[in-house]
Write a structure and sequence with these properties.
Length: 419
């Protein structure tokens, strides 16, 4: 650490101690513009043996419990780096070097699990219902599923997930370590829209390091420092993915892509289903090209909003229309009507009784007329089912009518022969 950077941190430490209570808001507003101070604080946190680490952690905790919103966010931006430093020191079994960082993490945790009156918080999350519209969908575009969800929502069956109350912790152990760290990442993700770019970069980098340290991919990433494997929990990895998903659409595409691949790599090794499900869902929803969004502009995830107008046609078939509908039988057209609608099968009735004629030998003429009749019916059916009836249907119908005319006028049916 350079002398100039050390001087910036020391000036920051002494300035806040002499700051009056009335000028606290103006101090917090101007603090986020000091980029040199932020970079110097990152270097102090990354050096566990630095003599400035303990006073820096103490002042960051004072910022957090001051009640000023901007000072609280100023402390939260260093949370990913603090978590990485604590896990790295714990993996190297030098716990005594991380005492001040552990105290800061425990202080932030114990402040977040209670409200202003000192009562334990219970966080509630309502699972969105498909029957209620959102920026991602409209119930009318889902179809029959929307009716089912609507019926369930009317009976108050919306599912609510509760988190808490969380117990207070006096120290971090192997049993409660990731319970505390997961909750801290949840608090960090709740303020993602206020985090600067350097904090998002730190989040992506520490996610990659936590997931690959001690594994063969560490040599591919060329991460140096520790070679020990850092244990992680499934819920902790899901919270990491939440922040990475935000970083994708806010100017950190390359780092977020690398972090997502490393988390999927570690989740596959650990056989964690929840991180794998979330990571694959994020990967499937990403655009093909890199998102080069502005780091200065509005931070949001772009989605296609469904038009508000209903897409259901007024003439759509519904259960009511089906119930009231009655099929009508097609009546047989008159014999004098020479026009026949295309696509309707009309089978003429041919009387084969009481027709005078010569006796034929063993029904020869009957078989001939039966074949003619079958050809006639088959020709009409082919005309009705042929999709090219506009160009070829009419000549075929006229030919079949001529056959019927010939049958009625010139050929006697082999019916009953009177002697």
């Amino acid at each position: 650490m350079f002398t100039s950077e050390k001087g910036v941190v020391e000036e920051w430490l002494s300035e806040f101690k002499t700051l009056p209570e009335t000028s606290l808001r103006n101090y917090a507003t101007n603090l986020k513009e000091k980029s040199s101070l932020v970079s110097s604080l990152y270097k102090v946190i990354q050096e566990p043996q630095s003599e400035l680490l303990e006073p820096v952690c103490h002042q960051l905790f004072e910022f957090y419990r001051s009640g000023e919103e901007q000072l609280l966010r100023f402390t939260l931006q260093f949370l990913p780096e603090l978590i990485w430093c604590y896990l790295a020191v714990s993996a190297s079994r030098n716990v005594h070097r991380s005492g001040c960082i552990e105290a800061l993490l425990l202080g932030v945790y114990n402040l977040e699990i209670v409200d202003k009156q000192g009562h334990s918080k219970v966080l509630s999350f309502t699972i969105p219902s498909l029957s209620k519209p959102s920026v991602y969908h409209e119930p009318s575009s889902i179809g029959s599923m929307a009716l089912t969800e609507s019926a369930l929502s009317q009976h108050g069956l919306s599912k609510v997930v509760y988190s808490g109350p969380h117990p207070q912790r006096e120290m971090l152990t192997a049993q409660n370590r990731f319970e505390v760290l997961t909750f801290l990442l949840l608090c960090y993700n709740a303020a993602l829209t206020y985090m600067p770019s350097v904090s998002l970069q730190s989040l992506c980098q520490i996610c990659s390091r936590i997931c690959v340290c001690g594994y063969p991919r560490q040599h591919v990433r060329k991460y140096k420092g520790i070679n020990s494997r850092i244990p992680v929990s499934s819920g902790f990895m899901v919270q990491m993915l939440t922040g990475i998903y935000f970083a994708f659409y806010n100017g950190e595409w390359d780092l977020a892509q690398k972090a997502l691949d490393d988390i999927m790599y570690r989740a596959q090794l650990e056989l964690y289903p929840e991180p794998l499900l979330v990571a694959n869902a994020i990967k499937a929803s990403l655009p093909h090209g890199a998102m080069k969004s502005s780091k200065e502009g509005t931070r949001c995830i772009q989605v296609e909003i469904t038009p508000t107008s209903s897409r259901i046609s007024r003439n759509a078939v519904t259960s009511m229309s089906i119930r009231g509908h009655r099929w009508k039988r097609h009546e047989q057209p008159d014999n004098n009507n020479d026009t026949t609608e295309l696509g309707i099968l009309v089978i003429p009735e041919i009387s084969v009784t009481n027709v005078a004629g010569e006796r034929t030998g063993n029904g020869e003429k009957g078989r001939t007329l039966g074949e003619i009749d079958a050809q006639h019916i088959q020709g009409v059916q082919e005309t009705a089912t042929d999709p090219r009836t506009e160009s070829k249907g009419l000549p075929e119908i006229r030919r079949q009518k001529s056959v019927r005319k010939m049958m009625e006028d010139g050929i006697n049916s082999p019916g009953r022969v009177q002697f």
